[in-house]
Amino acid sequence: MVNRANTFFGGSGELSQGQEVIVYARWVLVAAAMGFALWLPAPLAQLRVQAFLILLLAIGNFFLHAQVLRRRPAPDWVVYGASAADLVAITALLWIQGGYPSELYIFYFPAVLAISVAFSTEHAAVYTISAVSAYAVIGALTAPFDAEVLTVVVRCLMIAAVAVCGNQYQRIEGARLARLSAAGPGLARLEEEIKR
Amino acid sequence: MNPTAYASAPVRETAAEAAEDLFFGQVAIIYARWAVIVAGIVMILAAGNAGQLTIELVPIVLLMAVNFFLHGRHFMERPANRLLVLLASLLDLAVLSAIVLTWPGGPGLGSPYFVFLYPVVFAFALVFPPAYAAAFGLLAAVAYASVSLFAGLQHGPSDLKSLVMRLVTLSAMAALGTFYWRQQRARRRVLPA
Questions:
Q1: Residue from A39, A121, A124 nearest A80 by CA
Q2: Angstroms from A21 CA to nearest CA on chain B
């Protein structure tokens, strides 16, 4: 759903107003992943890769956060690229840690949450399906027993559930806002407030 | 946008807005519960014997009954009131804690079913005000930590690390859901009533 209210933030209107949620979700990922990487650390080679990926995400997020704070959100393609990078980083770290036994899949939850409330339904679906498919393949290939493949299925279902709930809520809120804005000049006032 | 930036703007009546939040938003909670039910049914397919199947079936049937009722009311455009949705969400927490403790795969921290909590906590935070969402998130975290500690941390520090990771990400679900809720409310508040 295109959120008209976003257009005056400098975005194209394709993204709804969830960029801040994406930025905060990524800070959760960066802070938690770095903290947990240093708590009972993995072997040095693995730790190097973990730290490298996490610091890359942190640098990118600093840039995006600065743009949001200046009320000049980054272009859509940068936001889409950064969210894809989040999912790739989580998947890569998971793979490095052995796939199924790794606990890092839980970082898909905040990442997918942010994508589901910020992106249009079509984009959110593509990102979620990509993440779930990647994890399903890695999980199924690395699960020690057949019975644990079902556990992977349950995890994938819950990741998808977060995406469905978030995007459904975003659509509901978009419809509410559109209905309210049709009744008066509220969006124009909002724009004035932001410029002030 | 800072959710508090428009505090001085004309405010639509808070009670009516909260009622609308519940009216429109509770479908997110209902969807989250359906997701848990579907995942539970998937696990029932893998039940090894009749006793295990019975243990797995009871909580799923209970959640289904609650969700049929709530979803039915939503279809009839007579959604449940705040108290009923709250009670149903507390029931979710109780049932999910029981699932983590009793279902196969290892009780407590060893159970793979703690992931059921993520969509439930997130959906709740999308519908209820921040104070409720914080209390619910905290309750979910305390319930899960209690169940895990009750069942015991078999592998010492590495189990403790897993527990803390899960609690941090679960709390993040509640916090991010609440942040989005506040953001949406701030946007509506500058619109005419």
A1: A124
A2: 7
- Cα distance from A185 to chain B (closest Cα, Å)? 7
Q: How many residues does chain A have?
A: 196
Q: CA A84, A119, A176: angle at the middle one, nearest 5?
A: 165
**Mind telling me how many Å the CA of B191 is from chain A's nearest CA?**
4
What tens digit of pLDDT does each residue of A137-193 get? 999 999 988 778 989 999 999 999 999 999 999 999 988 888 887 766 555 555 455
3-state secondary structure of B179: helix
Sign of CA dihedral B181, B182, B187, B188: positive
Three-state DSSP at B155 gives coil
B125 touches A: beta carbon within 8 Å: no
Question: Splitting chain B (193 residues) into consecutive groups of 10 residues, what average pLDDT does each group show?
Answer: 43 72 91 95 81 86 95 88 94 95 86 95 96 96 95 87 95 96 84 58
List the single residue in A21, A164, A190 with the smallest CB-CB distance to B190. A190
The separation between CA B24 and the C-alpha centre of its own chain, rounded to angstroms, equals 17
DSSP A3-43: -GGGGGGTS-SSS-S-HHHHHHHHHHHHHHHHHHHHSSPPP
Cβ separation A113–B177 shorter than 8 A: yes
Structure-token pair, residue B163? 């527990």
* Helical axes B117-127 vs B130-151, angle rounded to 10°: 160
Half-sphere exposure of B139 (CA within 13 A, CB side): 18
Residues of B in contact with A18 (CB under 8 A): 180, 183
Return d(Cα B1, Cα B6) in angstroms, integer.
Answer: 10
Selection from B17, B61, B16 nearest residue B185 by Cα: B17
**Among candidates A110, A157, A165 on the partner chain, residue whose Cβ is nearest the Cβ of B31:** A165
Amino acid letter, residue A26 = R
Per-domain residue ranges for chain B? Answer: 15-189
What is the ipTM score, two decimals?
Answer: 0.88
- How far does Cα A24 stand from its chain's mean position? 9
Question: Radius of gyration (Cα) for chain A, nearest Å?
Answer: 18
